[in-house]
Amino acid sequence: MKNLILPLLLIICIHCSKSDGVASPRASADLVEVLPDDKTANFSKNELVPSPQEEPRENTPKKIDTISKKIIKNGEMRIQVSDIKKSLDQVNEALKKNNAYIQTEDFQNSDEDENLSLTIRVPHKNFDALINSFSNGIGSVLSKNISSEDVTEEYTDVSIKLANKKIYLEKYRDLLRRASNTKDMLEIQEKIRGLEDEIDVAEGKLRFIDDRVNYSTLNLSLYKEKIRSSATSKIGFGSRFGDSITQGWNSFISFILGLISFWPFFLAIPLIVFLWRKWKGRKKQK
Q1: Distance, CA of 163 to CA of 167 (rounded, Å)
Q2: At 205, which helix (H) or strand (E)?
Q3: Does the model's pTM come out above 0.85?
Q4: Residue 238: CA count within 13 A, CB half-sphere
Q5: Can you give the residue range of the structural domain that contains 198?
Q6: Phi, psi of 231 (to 5 degrees)
Q7: pLDDT digit string (tens) for 237-269?
Q8: What is the number of alpha carbons within 13 Å of residue 25 lying toward its C-beta?
Q9: ∠259-263-265 over CA atoms, to 5°?
Q10: At what angle do helices 152-178 and 182-214 cross, to 10 degrees?
């Protein structure tokens, strides 16, 4: 019996050792081959090639905005009307329709005419429509002058210089933070102050150009001449003759009053003549 058990135990041990010796080396080899590959792959993805979220913004190309056309439109109009007040109401109505407004207003009234001068600001897109509304229905257009000025090149030049000045300003500010002595700090601060002034001037110029481009300017003059109309022309010869007599008499009175205003000179003339004759008589006696 003992002779049978020992051979069986020997066979079982040999079988187990064979199965373990074949499977474990293969499995360990697979692990050795796979694990290093996975680690290398993860390293290259996470460290060698940064994700888009981790890339600094300074390395991304900035989009350069293209400047559209900058056109300044101005105009002048002189319109003869029969009633200044009524025409002004029509002007205000046209301004409301075109989102325009009156910037300045000047009224002059003389014996010969009435003149209302308006400086109007109107959105660029409504400029032509406003001109057309004034040309039709308000009165007789005596003169009209429309001009356009392309300032795109000037605007672009100022914009580029402004961008460069801002870059230099940031560089000087960075130098100021790293300055080690008072002399360097004062020199850098002076440079910064000069650049800030130049930047303010450039930005102000761009704002001025934008304002002139976005809102056109129209100088409108409403003119009413004070002359005899068709109604007054019906006055007869007698009335006109009486008006002429009155006007002549008023002119004569004005002349007399003008002469009277010179009375000191009239009193001085006889005195001068008397002194001159007296002096001449004495001269003859000698």
Answers
A1: 6
A2: helix 182-214
A3: no
A4: 0
A5: 153-213
A6: -70, -45
A7: 666 677 778 888 888 888 888 877 777 777 778
A8: 5
A9: 105
A10: 160
